[in-house]
Amino acid sequence: MTIWYGGDYNPEQWPRPVWDEDVQLMNRAGVSLATVGVFSWARLEPRPGEYDFAWLDEVLDLLHAGGVRVDLATATASPPPWLAARHPETLPVTEDGVRLSVGSRQQYCPSSPEYRERAGELVRRLVERYADHPALELWHINNEYGCHVSRCYCDVSAEAFREWLRERYGTVDELNRAWGTAFWSQHYDAFDEVQPPRAAPTFRNPTHLLDFERFSSDELLACFRAEKAIIRAGSSVPVTTNFMGFFKPVDYWSWAAEVDVVSDDTYPDPADPGSPAYAAMVRDLMRSLGGGAPWLLMEQSPSAVNWRAQNAAKAPGQMRAWSYQSVARGADGILFFQWRQSAAGSEKFHSGLVPHSGTDTRVWREVEQLGGELAMLSARSGDEAIAGTRVASRVAIALDWHSWWAIEQPASPTEVSYLRALGAWHAALTSLGLVVDFVRAEGDLSGYDLVVAPAHLVATDAQVSNLAAFAETGTLIVGFGTAVLDEHLHVRLGGYLGEPLRRALGVWIEEFAPPAAPDLANAGGKAAPPLALAGDVVGGSAFGTAWGEYVRVEDAETLATFDDGALRGWPAVTRRRTGTGSGSGSGSGSAWYVATLPDPESLRLIAESAAREAGIELPPAATRGGQVEAVRRGSALFVINHGPDEAELLVDGTDLLSGAQAQGLRLASQGVAIVVAEANPE
Amino acid sequence: MTIWYGGDYNPEQWPRPVWDEDVQLMNRAGVSLATVGVFSWARLEPRPGEYDFAWLDEVLDLLHAGGVRVDLATATASPPPWLAARHPETLPVTEDGVRLSVGSRQQYCPSSPEYRERAGELVRRLVERYADHPALELWHINNEYGCHVSRCYCDVSAEAFREWLRERYGTVDELNRAWGTAFWSQHYDAFDEVQPPRAAPTFRNPTHLLDFERFSSDELLACFRAEKAIIRAGSSVPVTTNFMGFFKPVDYWSWAAEVDVVSDDTYPDPADPGSPAYAAMVRDLMRSLGGGAPWLLMEQSPSAVNWRAQNAAKAPGQMRAWSYQSVARGADGILFFQWRQSAAGSEKFHSGLVPHSGTDTRVWREVEQLGGELAMLSARSGDEAIAGTRVASRVAIALDWHSWWAIEQPASPTEVSYLRALGAWHAALTSLGLVVDFVRAEGDLSGYDLVVAPAHLVATDAQVSNLAAFAETGTLIVGFGTAVLDEHLHVRLGGYLGEPLRRALGVWIEEFAPPAAPDLANAGGKAAPPLALAGDVVGGSAFGTAWGEYVRVEDAETLATFDDGALRGWPAVTRRRTGTGSGSGSGSGSAWYVATLPDPESLRLIAESAAREAGIELPPAATRGGQVEAVRRGSALFVINHGPDEAELLVDGTDLLSGAQAQGLRLASQGVAIVVAEANPE
Amino acid sequence: MTIWYGGDYNPEQWPRPVWDEDVQLMNRAGVSLATVGVFSWARLEPRPGEYDFAWLDEVLDLLHAGGVRVDLATATASPPPWLAARHPETLPVTEDGVRLSVGSRQQYCPSSPEYRERAGELVRRLVERYADHPALELWHINNEYGCHVSRCYCDVSAEAFREWLRERYGTVDELNRAWGTAFWSQHYDAFDEVQPPRAAPTFRNPTHLLDFERFSSDELLACFRAEKAIIRAGSSVPVTTNFMGFFKPVDYWSWAAEVDVVSDDTYPDPADPGSPAYAAMVRDLMRSLGGGAPWLLMEQSPSAVNWRAQNAAKAPGQMRAWSYQSVARGADGILFFQWRQSAAGSEKFHSGLVPHSGTDTRVWREVEQLGGELAMLSARSGDEAIAGTRVASRVAIALDWHSWWAIEQPASPTEVSYLRALGAWHAALTSLGLVVDFVRAEGDLSGYDLVVAPAHLVATDAQVSNLAAFAETGTLIVGFGTAVLDEHLHVRLGGYLGEPLRRALGVWIEEFAPPAAPDLANAGGKAAPPLALAGDVVGGSAFGTAWGEYVRVEDAETLATFDDGALRGWPAVTRRRTGTGSGSGSGSGSAWYVATLPDPESLRLIAESAAREAGIELPPAATRGGQVEAVRRGSALFVINHGPDEAELLVDGTDLLSGAQAQGLRLASQGVAIVVAEANPE
């Protein structure tokens, strides 16, 4: 099995002689896969209906001759200026009514029939011409769907939205019921009266907003499906489209089943010490979206990006370390944006595998080194294989785009960052040495011992029941803000949580009581001021952030209480053992409730208690010192030192990268070891 | 007399069976008044010209049967979506030309003839149907006029603005003179050339801006008047519309005479320690708007609201304490938004009298307690009455919307918060135990011993003369930034202040010299850096904020000087005794000038000196400890502990709430006592 | 020769009797030049085609009778409202599509044919009427071109932009090549498809943006040229237009040759301690734009302005001190906005020579004093003359608007303030007692010993070669971010800098590595966190800001290195002696490279080393104590104490202002001395 290596290749930016050097350098670097054509529409169809494929023929033939496989883009991500000139109505419109213009990229309304027709025709021609090209390994549909324009408020989108609503609700009465339009005199007499949630005098109807999020995600998916159908009609080569990690505008759960392989673009900030933890969460998501199957890191940067205010260069070794993090967490491909750093345009200051300054550079030397190593790893097969293997996990976090959309709406109890809530739990579990999957709350949870549902604000009856059922045998942790609303954002009355979860947890919520705004509490920082917590499960000087509430216990133990202000003495962490506390359960499950977002150390303690209770064996430390990530994939243990200080390996076996005995080996900052039991790795 | 109790009741959000429970719970809680129909237009007229009153008939009959009186809304605050669908020109337009859309509320241009006609017809039908309903106690016209859309910049508004200007100025020459269009080539050749102050290249003409504020306030008032006229044609029941405290967009002085009873919506932040002081100022305004007559607290929240970034729950007792603050300061009704907490829509996380989690809750228990207490107080009559009585005050602050609008315009000497300037004086006087009225500078001031005119930037000749005349016998304090401009925002040349005030004060202003921006002074905070002050009247380490100036003394004592930088040694606080200093006056009056906004403690000292000079007896402390508000209404002394610490009562008499002897009684945080002389209160 | 004194005079704001007083007061103050008519279009042409010059005739006659010369404005800076009413398409449009409205000023699209035609006709009439008026000294074309509306995105501008592009590129293929449209599918098939860089989904094409800056600057210049041509057809009196210091939207290099005299409006913040240094840089620019010829300070404020958030009054003496700074740095005129402080309109709180409060004021007394002194200085002639003389400089900084526009574009390595980079070098050189010129990198540099090119991001081949050639004999300092791009913003591949500079410096750049964002480095402040530096040339605790990079040395000495993180040990400051290091050069030149923006003290040390190496003699200190600026103009040494503390003069000669011997004289804060060698000045 191969761990693909390569990246976006845009030869149209360069004169022909450079192409030959490109292929030579690709061979030197061990490049095995090139993504071609992502932004080539204007080059492939310079004017409506006039196509020019000759240059692309040559590129593909050159790559094929050089042994480089091709991930061929459908080139529909950015229409040529002629489309806007002839059809201004294809340009997207903002919430405030501003029609966006040409001159950057992705300037199309996803619902535009004109755009879809033109894009479809281009795909048809590409499939016709290249379906049988020997270099073709993968179809790359469009590019980063929705990265700049995920919502369009134009009249064309308005009509498409109404159509989507008709489909969803059947009658306008049903829409009125779902949206709760009895309030604020919002009752619609006909679908024709509904508009996208354009700028309005004040808070817009929450369900209206949520349905527009759903619609917009679906419209982009419809674009994808249309292209895929055209490809399928003429080619059986697998398709992908590049995801963008935790990308709020698009519900990747609904997309995951539609791609043949999951691929991801992620650009953590090299200067941010929090990047490795965040990136680990992204890698886990990609693995989870594909149901555990290997995925592709489709884009990362060789060094700096260009779109932040400050764009740090990657430190020596950092690109390699982060690449291995992806492999460790299930990637079978390490690809980059882009092959050769552009000499012009908006991304000229985004680093490339071949830098502006050429190959006598640190960046290029690291590119060659990693290429060589991945080729070595790719050569391993059978029991020793790394590529193609899976990563085992007994712990999962429930992730839900509807909750993400809803909990960050205005007119809520308090400002909550959904990703911060998820990330806190992911970090706590990861710090115990566990690998975490993401799951859907309504999915099959039977493979897990421990499931956490944090800030899962919107929960269908099926989700509520499924989580409650899991608690019968497994360990369920429910975080604050969960199952407060149903799928139409109607409150679950009578204490929130929904009846099955309320019974499982043995608690109900009387009232939300979030902490005060920081300026009122003189806390000075951005985060809300902390609420003190007390209880063995949370350790010494514990505090909660982001949320607080009055929890009423009916049938549960109180493991920690709030210790501040009006909430003092009220439960903050509770547990109900379903095998004992309830008296009727037959399993050994338990249901925890956590009514705030505890500080990281407290959360780690809670997670550890729950994991032990769930019967999960926590792995021993792989190193002494450093800030180390250790992940087992297949038969190999990947050890990566993300910190500035050296770490010493404590595990037996052999490091595949150095060939040395692992035990006692020292890993410098950004160092990596891949430890296997075998004595003499190749 | 009754102290009304209740709140907004929106039964259309709930299935029919809930209505019966509502009335039963209202009875349990002592609810006596329900506001019905505020957001019911779309339900009452689901499509143009088709009316459905059956459900409202039933609601009113049910309430009547349950003994609950009705404050019936005209339901015109939020048009149904069909209005925008059929008449997009009724939608309001922002300064930047964005036409706001449906999906929230209040999406109408106040000048729209179409809106006004449709609203008028609805009111006509409501009056026709319900004028004689036995439950009807009050008409509630529209709702929170201008809360989201107080200014509209559309072409319809433009024409209405021009009409208003024609009315105001008669000729375009007069407009040119008033607006000072000789500068910047702004001369208008005809009214038709005038536009609303839409987005422009730079600072817009200040008088143009001010007139648009006046026009916009008047347009909303015209909407109110139109509805009131329709009601009056068919009903003699009193009308109100709910004000919103210190609401900048609308000049409530011009509205006050038009309502039969003043009512107010105020939502102080429960987490902000400054809220009780701010709320006290609001209550005083409401009393003053009605000329001292009892008013209604039309809306407050039982616990949290939903529209801040962080929405704190009210602490135990806080809702009750703040309710009594309103009663103490003249309210004869304590009403809430809303009766039953919504299950859907934009306000579902706004607390209700009946919470999501039901009646086994702190919120509900406090609702029942307060209802019982208010019923007890309502039963008192004759000399013992509380409802219907007035609150006496000998101190007033001049309040002026034109000054508010003008002083916060850009292109001014410095950024000034008008409310901060007023609030500082209100707090200083309140801290002395005084109750403060708000007055118009041109009004009858004869009932007061002390009048403060802070930051009264815009003053007509009548106002200048009236204030100067008051100083002949009373104590007048003029704050910085007063009478700098006339009603057209033309400078009062020759030293500012206007001739009569200049003479009364014995000073004129040479030049403004506000403190530097905080970042330049390395002060770090948001407020401008302080200017040191020296003088007995301001105490030890005094400083001024917000403003500074070069004051020239002609005939006055200097009580304090600036003590910093270029201003060092220049007068900061002066006083002219009109009975002595001027040599000619016969009264005992005096005129103070304060050239900056002193720090709170210094301001308190100044206020105390002036109050003593004015012959005002300062009340003795009502308590020891705590952060206590003590206000006398009628024969009762209301004592409210807003602080976190316990306070001990020092006054004789009986506490009506506990029935105990007052002297020595301990008030916990949020505790309230209502002390009367009588020995055995019922 | 005369040092002009006076300012903007807007009599149309005042009744006729005031005009007589104006002329009397002008005579008292020594006013010699009045700028008339700047905002008079609406008064001169109250409706289309109807002109009224009678009032202006009277004003000019009155001034002439009073001996005051006139700088007559063309009055085209702000069209009357009737233009917008009749031709809404003349109103400018923002990037977001908002059409700006009337009611402020400058509301015209610079490309509008209608505006240009109407403006031209007005100028024609003014020239016809006043070309031979005896008071006429100067034509003042328009006013502060572009100060509010420098870019317009309307359809008229779009067509003008396309025309400009056709002119520049000839073919659309050439445009595509220059803009690098091969990327992001931006290829244009025809000029008609190009739009102004309106709001777009993400980063707009950088060269597109840059060309729009160039176009917009050119469009304003075309307006100026059109008016000048009309004037030239009927008058030989000199023309000017008032510049605005370092004004980013307009490339003053391209304007400088078009004006007969350079004039400038500058309003430093009186409360900002950094203002004198910044103002010195502005004065040096104005002198440089005119090739060293005397220039006019056309506008400054007598005391406070009105358009900042906080508008400090000038301290006593500050206006005078800053006026002399201008004279010292080459000004032959000290003029103000405006003569009489307005009583109404947007600028009524902007100070005037005649304040609101009259002439018994500090401001007026200082006005009279300065007028008298300038008259005394004007009377000096021959060898003793001050007016008309030049300021010598052997040091220059390369200034380039294209680099300014480009380096502050988004999608760059990091956020850089171009002015901060230039200002840091200017301050370092100025602190050595040197007077600094600004030059164009492609200009004649032979008059200088030391040239600095900081952040000169965009460099043509000619500029690169010219700088490299200068280093053969002179001392060249190249700062970070220089010559990274060519004029089309294409990267100079192979190490940046361009071949000639790379050779001259003996270094190339491997990769940019800017410091991390401050929040990531916990630095707390706004500025990026520092990078430690080590090396004798930078002193003890040195650090770099704003930028960092990996510098590869081929043939140079390393004078300082980075001393932090991944950059530790890499060169930060290098030098190549072209006469020795290269082995082939014949001159004594040298080429320095500075890879970051060192802290001020380090930069001063670097500048001092380089200046000494360049053979520049540093002047001895003119004073002891104080924060003193000392500049020699002609035979006089101007010494100005900007600091709060007293300074003592150390120079021989006589102070023209006090008449006293200079040596030992004490200068208070804001004090000024003009020291000449002569014993008995008049």
TrEMBL record, chains A, B, C:
Gene Ontology MF terms: beta-galactosidase activity; metal ion binding
Catalytic activity field: Hydrolysis of terminal non-reducing beta-D-galactose residues in beta-D-galactosides
One Pfam family from the record: Glyco_hydro_42M
Cellular component terms per the entry's GO annotation: beta-galactosidase complex
Keyword check for Zinc: yes
UniProt enzyme class: hydrolase
Natural source organism: Agromyces aureus
Keywords, ordered alphabetically: Glycosidase, Hydrolase, Metal-binding, Zinc
Any GO BP annotation: carbohydrate metabolic process
Family annotation (InterPro entries): Beta_galactosidase_Trimer, Class_I_gatase-like, GH, Glyco_hydro_42, Glyco_hydro_42_N, Glyco_hydro_b
Chain ranges of the Glycoside hydrolase family 42 N-terminal domain: 8-375
Residues that, per the record, bind Zn(2+): 109, 152, 154
Name of the featured protein: Beta-galactosidase
Protein family: Belongs to the glycosyl hydrolase 42 family.
Binding site residues for substrate: 105, 143, 307
